[in-house]
Design goal:
Elongation Factor Tu (Ef-tu), domain 3, Rossmann fold, six-stranded parallel sheet
Length: 218
């Protein structure tokens, strides 16, 4: 397993409490959907983050939500290009079942930064057939939505009115109003309560439990 120091190349501030960090890859290998641990050097403290970048990109990118009073994310947010982070990984089983089978239909359901592995999926396997349903509190949290194929991204905004056709309400309300196909494969990532509720809704819509894969982010 890889472990080493990686130079910070860029910090992008995407919303009030969310940013992305781009670092040198240093030959780290991973499968789309896997995680690494990231921390500041010589602190012995790190946190788990899924890759936001594709398997074959030259650099590594991660989508990070700043946790108030957190031990890692507030410090990562203050880093500058040229600083270093310590990276340990990769690991995890939240990966696509058959990424090269283009007959499959995937539905990726996320809240907040839980969209990170789905962005990685799309960047790694651009020919897959997919739909993303992304729950956010505010419109500004539709991170890099233009990276997705037109019509494949649905943003569900729960705490303010949409400005460009976003669905007003939570992911659960969207699914109840828009029943899903039992033949698709569903990946759920983000808030534990959302995952539990969405799982129940999909099962009520005759989706097999074997076609629902989950990853709890927070």
């Amino acid at each position: 397993m890889h472990k080493g120091l990686h130079k910070v190349l860029e910090i992008r501030h995407l919303a009030k409490s969310t940013f992305s960090i781009r670092i040198e890859r240093n030959d780290l290998k991973f499968i789309a959907g896997q995680c690494v641990n990231i921390g500041l050097p010589n602190t012995g403290v790190n946190r788990e983050y899924s890759s936001y970048s594709g398997e074959n990109e030259a650099d590594l990118r991660f989508l990070i939500r700043e946790v108030e009073d957190g031990q890692v994310s507030p410090k990562l947010k203050t880093l500058k290009p040229g600083d270093f982070v310590e990276v340990d990984g990769s690991y995890g089983l939240f990966t696509l079942v058959s990424p090269h089978d283009l007959t499959r239909n995937y539905v990726f359901i996320a809240t907040g930064t839980g969209i990170a592995p789905f962005h990685c999926f799309v960047k790694s396997y651009p020919k897959i057939k997919y739909k993303i349903i992304h729950g956010t509190a505010r419109v500004e949290e539709g991170y890099d939505k233009n990276d997705y194929v037109s019509g494949s991204y649905v943003q569900c905004v729960s705490q303010e009115k949409g400005v460009n056709g976003e669905f007003s309400g939570r992911v659960t309300s969207y699914l109840q109003q828009n029943p899903q196909s039992k033949d698709s494969i569903y990946y759920l990532c983000g808030n534990r309560n959302m995952i539990n509720d969405v799982y129940d809704i999909l099962r009520e819509q005759d989706v097999s439990g074997s076609n629902i894969i989950t990853e709890v982010f927070f």
